[in-house]
Specification:
By secondary structure, the protein is α+β, with helices and mostly antiparallel strands. It has helices spanning 3-26, 100-107, and strands spanning 32-39, 45-52, 56-63, 67-73, 82-87, 92-98, 113-121, 124-128, 140-143. A five-stranded mixed beta sheet has the order 4-1-7-8-9. It has a four-stranded antiparallel beta sheet with strand order 3-2-5-6. The chain is globular and about 65 Å long. The termini are far apart.
């Protein structure tokens, strides 16, 4: 291989590497999503386990007024799904923390940056497009503990 061909291949490699990093880091062509899960239950520690078909984000404990959050790039095909398992000593819940329905609620239409807020309370779990006080009545009730 001649030196000029090697230089061209190396230049192409650098350009492709830069573009790949840019696409991965900046959610090019899709939404950048951050999901926040808040514990609003006094005197409790909630075990949070979130996973998708590709990623298991592990177990995380959140206490009153603290949150667990994670970030991802939504699929350009609109089929991104993250499931959550939640439990403390006396209750548990399992629900989709991000799916097409949640995306539609928080985005309406496509958005470059999306934040999803979940609040775990005594009577169930609630969804919001924006962070607000725990007692704000505009949190949307999505289900009860099991």
């Amino acid at each position: 291989m001649s030196i000029s061909v090697t230089k061209k291949l190396f230049s192409l490699f650098i350009v492709l590497s830069y573009f790949t990093c840019f696409v991965i880091a900046d959610c090019y062509f899709t939404s950048s999503v951050t999901v926040y899960i808040f514990n609003g239950i006094p005197a409790s520690t909630i075990d949070v386990h979130v996973k998708s078909g590709d990623d298991d984000l592990g177990h995380h404990n959140i206490t009153l007024n603290l949150a667990y959050h994670f970030h991802f790039c939504a699929s350009i095909f609109g089929n991104t799904l993250f499931m959550g398992d939640f439990a403390d000593n006396s209750r548990s819940a399992h629900f989709h923390v991000y799916d097409d329905d949640v995306a539609q609620y928080v985005n309406g239409d496509f958005a470059d940056i999306t934040n999803v807020y979940w609040l775990l309370k005594q009577d169930g779990y609630y969804l919001s497009k924006e962070f607000k006080p725990y007692d704000d009545p505009s949190w949307v009730y999505r289900g009860a503990w099991e």
